[in-house]
Amino acid sequence: MTIHEILKMGDPRLLRIAKPVPQAAFDSDPLHTLVRDMFETMASVDGAGLAAPQIGVDLQLVIFGTDAVNPRYPEAPLVPRTVLLNPVITPLDEEEEDGWEGCLSVPGLRGMVPRFKRIRYSGFDPYGDPLERTVDGFHARVVQHECDHLIGKLYPMRVRDFSRFGFTEVLFAGQPLPPDD
Ligand code: ZN
């Protein structure tokens, strides 16, 4: 297994529109290896999610999940460990919710980001089986954050109120941190 370098904001590879995972790659050894490496990479930095473009892989593939309590974020709600290929997100209504976000590609910073509160997402698992869920709150936020990486969007591009964007240790001095994706 391999822990990959996580690209940081400013790298043009984070701004690409990722390519769909071709059907021929479903359930293949290279895909399973990539997914394992991504989980290992995410765990090495206690992340809550990781998108393939963050390790320079130009594919519509995200992983996320916090089904064990993350030592860095003991307060974060649990989200099932998920691998999602070629995702499609559909907001269920117009309602948005503000929440703090961080990103492994934007280390040391946090920002308040509005996201759709309720979404349905669909796609495929690494075996090519369809996956569809209706979720809300933190789970919906994590999925929207990760899938933004597939269209070249980093969360600072979604911040509307820049008075709530800053350095983690200043914003959250002595408090539990919101998760990094
Ligand atoms: Zn991120």
Explain this structure.
The protein is an alpha+beta fold. The protein is built from 3 helices and 8 strands; from the N terminus they run H-E-E-E-E-E-E-E-H-E-H. The strands form 2 sheets. Strands 1-2-3-6-7 form a 5-stranded antiparallel sheet, with helices on both faces. It starts with 28 loop residues before the first helix and ends in a 10-residue tail after the last helix. Bound molecules: zinc ion. Zinc ion is lined by residues 103-105, 145, 149, 181.
* Main sheet attributes: strand count, strand direction, barrel closure: 5 strands, antiparallel
Instruction: Indicate the overall shape.
Output: globular
- Report the bound ligands by name, code or SMILES: zinc ion
Summed up, the helix count is: 3
Kindly state the number of beta strands: 8
What fraction strand?
A: 25-35%
Arrangement of strands in the largest sheet? 1-2-3-6-7
Rg calculated over all Cα atoms: 15 Å
Structural class, by secondary structure, is alpha+beta
Give the CA-CA distance, first to last residue: 21 Å
Q: Which blocks of ≥5 consecutive residues have pLDDT under 50?
A: none
What is the succession of H and E elements? HEEEEEEEHEH
Chain-averaged pLDDT: 94
Helix amount, in percent? 10-25%
